[in-house]
Amino acid sequence: MSYILGTNLVLNEQVEIALTRIFGLDPKKAIQVFDQLGLNDKIKVNKLTKYQIDRIIKIISQNYLVDLELVRIIQKDIK
Fold first, then answer.
1. Structurally, what CATH architecture does the domain formed by 2-78 represent?
2. Cβ contact 79:33 at 8 Å
3. What is the mean pLDDT of the chain?
């Protein structure tokens, strides 16, 4: 498994699909991230380089609320 933004991604899964496992990243957002990377649409998680993983993290962190950030906001709104 590959650990990205608090989520374990299945190594033999396509990146575009695997990104939807990240809390707060729906399929539409995952496609947007994937398109920004400019990668082959069939690439799997285990074929990503460290540079590509770093870019994924940077793109998601700069553009979307995900994982713990999103959980904190949801909990704050509930209180």
1. Orthogonal Bundle (1.10)
2. no
3. 86
